[in-house]
Design a protein that fits this description.
This is Putative 2-succinyl-6-hydroxy-2,4-cyclohexadiene-1-carboxylate synthase. Its EC number is 4.2.99.20. With 293 residues, the chain is an alpha/beta fold. It contains 10 helices and 8 strands. Helix content is 41%, strand content 17%. The chain has an 8-stranded mixed beta sheet with strand order 1-2-4-3-5-6-7-8, sandwiched between helices. The C terminus is likely disordered.
């Protein structure tokens, strides 16, 4: 397994984005852009990137604002879903990619879904892992925004180690207690490399309380869409099945033995599902559907 082959810093409207690339974006069958979850980075996708390149695809991992090697925006509005989506559309154009297959986990999946709604010409397909369309009820969304603001203030005040301890103890990650010591330690080390100001800004701008509820717009997503959830994550298993029913060309897949983070807890099953999906969409080895003519 080789994983990422190249790291770049790409400026988009004054914000430096950290980008990792595996495979040749100008020679691969298609480009697959990978978006991590909250407190993650493109490093989380190293195993998936290796599997993609072995199958002839190019993998592009992007650190979302306030994470990894991407800068922390000085203006709070640069953290928002709309601004982030516009930045990502510009970024792939800079890489010479006309449209891509977008894969996102949790928060990254919500960003990818937003791109599917607002930038359909840039999206060949969507692979959404443990993702929602946001919060439907306005009162619940407001309550979540208030909680997220309080949590963001605590992160900024108490620091990243406190955040990581708190985050790892959440019930949604309970299934990860079965991870190997090595896998858990590696994930914890990646999380500890975060910056408190970056995490706080991301939570305020990209949290579920801050984003538009996309439920009424799911019918406008016409690209092929695969929604995955773990069988040990019943909340998201139900969510992805409801979303799949609302998206015209969508399929839901429930992965046995996995909780919220399928690509960490059941990596082989996750990669097999992703590659099977991409192979169905990009049939010929020399087809470059995601690249400019």
């Amino acid at each position: 397994m080789t994983g990422w082959e190249e790291a770049r810093a790409i400026d988009v409207a004054g914000l430096s984005y950290g980008v990792r690339i595996a495979g040749g974006v100008d020679t691969a069958r298609a480009a697959v852009v990978m978006l991590h979850g909250f407190s993650g980075s493109s490093e989380d996708w190293i195993g998936t990137a290796a599997a993609l390149t072995e199958a002839g695809f190019a993998g592009v991992g992007i650190d979302l604002p306030g994470h990894g090697r991407t800068g922390i925006p000085a203006e709070p509005h640069r953290f928002t879903m709309a601004e982030t989506a516009r930045d990502l559309a510009t970024l792939i154009t800079t890489l010479g990619i006309a449209h891509a297959h977008w894969m996102g986990y949790s928060m990254g999946g919500r960003v990818a879904l937003y791109l599917g709604v607002t930038e359909p010409a840039r999206v060949a397909s969507l692979i959404l892992e443990s993702t929602s369309a946001g919060i439907a009820e306005e009162s619940a969304r407001t309550e979540r925004r208030i909680r997220d603001e309080a949590f963001a203030a605590e992160i900024a005040a108490r620091g990243v180690p406190w955040f990581v301890d708190t985050w790892e103890a959440l019930p949604i990650f309970g299934s990860q207690r079965g991870l190997s010591k090595e896998a858990h330690s590696e994930q914890r080390a990646r999380r500890l490399r975060n910056n408190a100001a970056g995490l706080a800004g991301s939570l305020r701008g990209l949290g579920q309380g801050a984003q538009e509820f996309l439920g009424p717009r799911l019918g406008s997503v016409h690209c092929p869409t695969l929604l995955l959830a773990g069988a040990l994550d019943p909340k998201y298993a139900a969510l992805v099945q409801r979303m799949a029913a609302a998206i015209p060309d969508a399929e839901a897949m429930i992965v046995p033995g996995a909780g919220h983070n399928i690509h960490l807890e059941q990596p082989e099953a996750f990669r097999r599902a992703v590659l099977d999906r991409l192979d169905r969409l990009v049939a010929a080895p020399d087809r470059k559907a995601s690249l400019p003519a």
